[in-house]
Design goal:
single chain; EARLY_FLOWERING_4; about 70% helix; mainly alpha; Protein EARLY FLOWERING 4; 3 helices; about 120 residues; nucleus; EARLY_FLOWERING_4_dom; biological rhythms
């Protein structure tokens, strides 16, 4: 379930690991991508909430036809859970890549030199 989300340009300045703002560090696109993934996750979670409510109502009704409908609803819930896992995996990868790009290159040089006594 891919959603075309409206672009919301909330340019609040988030601090990066180096203390500069995302816009100053040129990371605005990365933060926008992360924010979009979070919005996609929230949409799927909201859909699951509605589906779970429907499943509960169908179950409480004890009507055979409603119980049959629950099978498809529960399958959609399970599918949505897989989508959330995938979206969070993408978020983790994107955040990790962004973090590693921000690491100063000199930190590896400092580790290779032995301290002098």
């Amino acid at each position: 379930m891919d959603h075309d989300l409206p672009s919301t340009h909330n340019h609040s300045k988030a601090l990066t690991t180096t203390g500069e703002t995302a816009e100053e560090g040129g990371d605005a696109e990365v933060w926008d991508a992360l924010n979009q993934r979070f919005r996609q996750v929230q949409i799927v979670l909201d859909r699951n909430r509605a589906l779970i409510q429907q499943v509960n109502e169908n179950h409480q009704s004890r009507i055979a036809d409603n119980m049959v409908k629950n099978v498809a609803l529960i399958q959609e819930i399970n599918s949505n859970i897989s989508k959330v896992v995938s979206l969070y995996s993408d978020l983790s990868s994107n955040f990790s890549a962004m973090f590693h790009q921000r690491e100063p290159k000199s930190s590896t040089d400092d580790r290779t030199q032995s301290p002098r006594a």
